[in-house]
UniProtKB/TrEMBL annotation:
Gene3D superfamilies: NagB/RpiA/CoA transferase-like
Family stated for the protein in its record: Belongs to the 5-formyltetrahydrofolate cyclo-ligase family.
Cofactors, names only: Mg(2+)
Protein's recorded name: 5-formyltetrahydrofolate cyclo-ligase
Amino acid sequence: MNEGTFSSPPCFAHELQQGPNGYEMVDERTATDVARWRKAERERLIAARLAVPMEERIATAQKIIEALDGLTAAYSRPAVALYWPFRGEPDLRGWMVALHGQGARVALPVVVAKGRPLVFREWHPECRMERGIWNIPVPAEDRRLVPDIVVSPVVGADRDGYRLGYGGGYYDRTLASLPVRPMTVGVGHPSAEIDTIFPQPHDIPFDRMILEGRQWERK
Ligand SMILES: Nc1nc2c(c(=O)[nH]1)N(C=O)[C@@H](CNc1ccc(C(=O)N[C@@H](CCC(=O)O)C(=O)O)cc1)CN2
Ligand SMILES: Nc1ncnc2c1ncn2[C@@H]1O[C@H](COP(=O)(O)OP(=O)(O)OP(=O)(O)O)[C@@H](O)[C@H]1O
């Protein structure tokens, strides 16, 4: 046998990753560059959001609520996953109460383990809460539901519907694991709009983004 030659072509299977569109090539260096860029971009975007005065944040949340009202009106008693706001995310808790009052089921995301999909625990206005990951309050009782609509806070959002979050990959993993894809809505301050998140095979685009008055559907 010739030294330095191989009996078969080199195998690139290690560079393949299964994503929502099947197997795709992943270049390790590009993946590392994107991860680094995202880390810096998250820090920049979160700092920009925290610098927004409280009155402006309240006005933003109000506009988001108006848009969400329009979307949920098409559903009869939907199961809606929302979130308990922190780090300058739009506060939609007043709307959660109103939605519950209209007969919708409301749920909050819970991290059960790192690297696992989120679960959604049913929430109601008087429900007992406990502290979850990052001390974010979650319903104490583990009554799970499968959402028809997922409303998720964005750190960044691009015009193709891709969402940048806190870097845990939780929403992508969760959407990939659900048997039926819910309607997905990203919400945030207008400062969250970016040109691209440099989508990777695991990134799942959202159906709609609502950044205050600025709204778009996935292209
Ligand atoms: N209000 C609210 N609740 C939410 C979310 C959210 O975005 N907003 N989540 C949406 O997902 C989940 C929590 N998300 C998390 C995302 C990342 C990490 C985390 O540990 N991040 C690492 C950095 C990861 C990395 O860069 O590799 C860290 O900070 O050390 C924790 C929780 C569930 N609850
Ligand atoms: N379906 C998946 N299966 C396995 N790993 C995944 C999946 N989705 C995301 N990840 C991993 O999670 C990590 C973080 O992903 P990403 O940068 O997209 O997070 P994010 O969307 O900003 O976070 P979050 O959804 O928690 O707010 C990446 O290393 C990615 O490989």
